[in-house]
Design a protein that fits this description.
CATH topology of the largest domain: Rossmann fold
Low-confidence stretches: 252-258
Radius of gyration: 37 Å
Distance between the termini: 157 Å
Largest sheet: 9 strands, mixed
Number of strands: 12
Shape: elongated
Helix content: 25-40%
Length: 258
């Protein structure tokens, strides 16, 4: 009998332990459910535009062609949510869609401000008929149709802006040693290159061995300039072992005797 009573006591203890575990799990489940419901309603509340509404937009950057006021109004229009609910990525994309904006970043500043850092496009040259190309060779079109003065002009097939920009940089670097700068550079559909310098010298560069042929001219430029004693009009580099030159007509001064 004592042994049976001992077994019954152990069974009651185990049953009580299971009940305690069940109560603990029920309590934890109820707690998590309460937290979930509270979180849901808190999130819905924070997403209301009237909850911590945005009152200020700060635009920062170094601008030559961007009006910060225009960007600020654009961001305020796009910032429909409150402080916690505003779609930051959507606002960044909206800002970066503006023609003169290269890239942007957006962050919140408690309690009611959006801070927008903007990097403006830096044009390298004119591109084709109605566009510009930036320092990375990417083309973009100014929304106002205005172009900075004094930019060189690049041209080429669709999608070739980076290739033409890279060639422009390389040629400009090569010509710097003889005091020439590129004013216009063009690649046609057959990949033949034409260039005009700021001094008005027209170059036919061809489609093959462009760097080598140009370097051949550069190596002899000083001697040619001294021998010719006139300004060059055009240079044709489309020869395997040489090049052809045309000089400006010699000016003839006519004096009247007294």
């Amino acid at each position: 009998m004592p042994k049976l009573r001992k077994i019954e006591q152990q069974s009651l203890a185990e049953q009580a332990e299971r009940q305690r575990h069940l109560l603990v799990w029920c309590g934890l489940g109820l707690l998590f459910l309460t937290i979930g419901i509270a979180t849901h309603f808190a999130t819905k509340w924070l997403q209301q535009p009237s909850t911590f509404p945005l009152q200020q937009v700060e635009i920062r950057g170094e601008f030559k062609n961007i009006e910060p006021v225009v960007l600020r109004d654009l961001v305020m229009e796009a910032a429909k949510g409150g402080f916690f609910a505003v779609d930051m990525q959507s606002i960044r994309r909206t800002v970066e869609q503006q023609a003169w904006v290269d890239r942007a970043s957006v962050r919140r500043i408690w309690p009611d401000m959006l801070h927008v850092d903007v990097v403006e496009q830096v044009p390298l040259a004119r591109w084709s008929k109605d566009a510009l190309v930036n320092q990375r060779g990417e083309s973009f079109r100014p929304g106002d149709g205005l172009y900075p003065a004094g930019l060189p002009h690049l041209n080429g097939p669709e999608g070739a802006s980076q290739e033409v920009s890279n060639r422009f940089r390389q040629i400009n670097s090569d010509l710097s040693g003889i005091g020439l700068k590129v004013k216009m550079l063009q690649m046609d559909q057959r990949r033949a290159w034409v260039m005009v310098t700021e001094r008005g010298i027209w170059f036919e560069l061809g489609s093959q061995q462009v760097e080598e042929r140009l370097q051949r001219f550069i190596n002899l430029y000083q001697q040619l300039h001294e021998v010719g004693q006139r300004e060059l009009r055009s240079v044709d580099l489309r020869y395997r072992h040489g090049f052809a030159l045309r000089w400006q007509p010699q000016k003839i001064e006519v004096g009247m005797g007294v």
